[in-house]
Fold this protein.
Amino acid sequence: MKSLIKVSNTKLIAILLLTLFISCKEKVKIEHSVVKETSRVENLPYYNEESFTPNWVTPNSKEEQDFHKIPDFKLVNQLGDTITQDTFKNKIYITDFFFTSCPGICLNMTKNMTKVQEAFKDDAEIALLSHSVTPSIDSVAVLKEYADDHGIIPNKWHLVTGDKNEIYNLGRNHYFVENDLGIPKDINDFLHTENFLLVDKNKHIRGIYNGLNNASIAQLITDVKALKSE
């Protein structure tokens, strides 16, 4: 009888230890999940040069007001409408550089930008802007055909053409989209990049993303939502 009681007690202790282990494991899992969900920075960083070193600036501060901004521009979209900074007044926008005859990365970039469009298609605060780097070829009609072929929503996602010098100046000297640090470029050097940039309502650059990488696109979508809540 004593032997039986001893065995029963051993089993009971084993069950209690197993229950305690599972409970602790679940607690750790839950606590880890909470930390992961709340461990974001309070505000997204700001960027002002081609190395994309993050600057931690307080929104609505004097420092932010004086920080690098995208200047005004005047381009034309696939509908023949003039596009300026006023088009994006009180809007967050995501921008990139492409060309319609690109046989390589541009198609994948367009596919991933379509994911961003889908995520925010009903959100009037979010817009998309794609600049043609071959504006002499990408006329309004060509851009319109490309937009129709790829399900681009008019007035949500603007494909723009215009003066080549203006587009290249924007890309290289204001959006800093190329990664060739320290290598001088001029208008004869082709501008080609897979980068997407996130621009806030005050025209500050708040993020750079690889337009070919699914994880980077997911992060972009997350950061747009974070930026909306600032």
